[in-house]
Amino acid sequence: MAEMLVKIVGNVKHPVMLDPGTWIFDERRIDMEKAFDQSAESESNESFAALGKAFDRQRTEGAVPQQQTNKITVSRKDMQEKSFGIRLRPFLLNSSPDETADTVKFIRASDADVTLTLEEAGEGILQFSHKGSPLTEDGPVHFFYSDGSNRDNPITGIERIEVL
């Protein structure tokens, strides 16, 4: 059985180990059916607008004490039926790429490695599940460009992400 973890290594200050199996509970997860729709972008803009209003209200009315509540919600039906992904950018940023780093190489199990610019890789989406199942056969993750141009032919079999 293939390794289900992906490492970000190379020209970084902090190598990062990615465990796609935990991302189903991450609030940043993206429904892959909607990932490349323009409406997803407008929903994001609406979300930012709501956050801005809340920030403005907090500045004028004062802060509300925080409560210890777990707001992670995942529908069991969604977990079993939908395909999910997550943006690569936060994980690349956590690895703290060196100032000279400008490319990312996806090291693949059986196909040729793929090299992208650091910016292009950061904008992309790592798919980690398909119709409720982890990507065990040609995974653990698939990479999609942010514009969805490789929707029918994602970068698969990624074993390691190397920052160069």
Morphology call? globular
CATH class: Alpha Beta
Strand content: 25-35%
Q: Could you tell me the radius of gyration in angstroms?
A: 18 Å
What does this structure look like?
It contains four helices and ten strands. The longest helix is centred in the first third of the chain and has 24 residues, at 38-61. Helix content is 26%, strand content 25%. It is of the alpha+beta class. A five-stranded mixed beta sheet has the order 2-1-10-5-6. GO terms for molecular function: isomerase activity. This is Peptidyl-prolyl cis-trans isomerase. Keywords: Isomerase.
List keywords for this structure.
26% helix; isomerase activity; alpha+beta; Peptidyl-prolyl cis-trans isomerase; Sulfite Oxidase, Chain A, domain 2; 164 residues; isomerase; five-stranded antiparallel sheet; globular
Short note summarizing the structure:
This protein is α+β, with helices and mostly antiparallel strands and 164 residues long. It is 26% helix and 25% strand.
